[in-house]
Design goal:
single chain; alpha+beta; 3 domains; 5-stranded antiparallel β-sheet; 11 helices
Length: 310
């Protein structure tokens, strides 16, 4: 069945509809004609005109060099020719000074083929200036934070919350534990924490659920020493992944003093109990004039007085 040939008025209506769609598209686009002697702009839509500041009259029927000048025109022609030679879409970024101002633009060239030959190029442009600026600010912030992380005097470990793998460390951590950075990055927190593995996993889960942030753990150094450490953990996003940032302080001396204090308290309790028993056994009798008349053996042991002296 042969396709019905459209009448001229139908062709005009279809062309008008396509023109309306072309102009209504929100993405900035321009149509380029491929000629034997080079490239010429056919038209651009309203979004392209707003982005670039060039009207249809500014570019229609003109070469890139005539629109943008010889230097930039040559760079544009080079990209156009690459797309024609490859006969497939091509994407590239460029910083452009338009009449509307300097912008960073991501361009996509799509070849339009007819009988195996590229007859036109469809150029679509996306303004990525703000995106690039945000990327730059993020990178600068990341660099500053990395400097703070590396130079901080506190011991810092970054841990994968589900596996316990150590994914990042600072210089202070290497100095404290005695391992190189490469060695620590090949370890998990279970290799350092002396608690049973299931307990360590349980505490990681508490930190992950934000139910507990401060912990006291026994950590083993490379030389075998055990240090009681205070660990403050919080969730942070690193490279789009959630990790545990653990800031660690050596609490060994404090825990040692706490243990000594506990022992002293136990000794004091025992002493008080002994004195209580001693008090019950101690017996001293006075005569009316105030002199000591009798005393028992415990009183003699406590005072050191013999019976005649008392």
């Amino acid at each position: 069945m042969r396709a019905r040939i459209k009448r001229p008025e139908e062709q005009e209506k279809l062309t008008a509809q396509l023109e309306m769609v072309f102009d209504a598209v929100q993405k900035a686009i321009a149509l380029v004609e491929v000629e034997d002697d080079g490239f010429r702009y056919i038209r651009n839509n309203a979004a392209h005109q707003r982005l670039t500041g060039y009207t249809l009259e500014d570019i229609q029927g003109k070469t890139p060099g005539e629109v943008f000048g010889q230097e930039r025109g040559a760079a544009i022609i080079d990209q156009f020719q690459r797309c024609v030679n490859a006969q497939k879409p091509l994407t590239y970024e460029e910083t452009v000074r338009y009449p509307a101002g300097e912008r960073i633009v991501a361009n996509t060239l799509t070849p339009v083929l007819e009988k195996g030959e590229v007859k036109n190029l469809l150029l679509s442009c996306k303004d990525i200036t703000e995106h690039k600026q945000a990327e730059k600010e993020r990178d600068e912030l990341s660099e500053r934070l990395r400097g703070m992380f590396n130079d901080h005097s506190a011991v810092i470990l970054v841990i994968a919350p589900m596996t316990g793998k150590i994914v990042d460390v600072n210089a202070a951590a290497c100095n404290f534990y005695g391992y190189t950075r490469e060695e620590l990055l090949g370890m998990s927190i279970q290799d350092i924490n002396m608690l049973p593995e299931d307990e360590v996993a349980k505490y990681r889960q508490l930190a992950l659920e934000k139910k507990q942030q401060r912990f006291i753990f026994p950590h083993r150094l490379k030389n075998g020493d055990i240090k009681m450490v205070d660990v403050y953990s919080c969730l942070v996003t690193q490279d789009r992944e959630t990790v545990l940032l653990s800031i660690i302080f050596d609490g060994t001396e404090r825990e040692k003093y706490k243990e000594e204090l506990r022992q002293n308290k136990e000794l004091l309790k025992a002493t008080l109990r002994f004195i209580g028993k001693l008090h019950r056994r101690l017996s001293v009798h006075n005569r009316p004039g105030g002199g000591i008349t009798t005393r028992n053996r415990v009183a003699e042991e406590v005072t050191g007085w013999r019976e005649q002296e008392a």
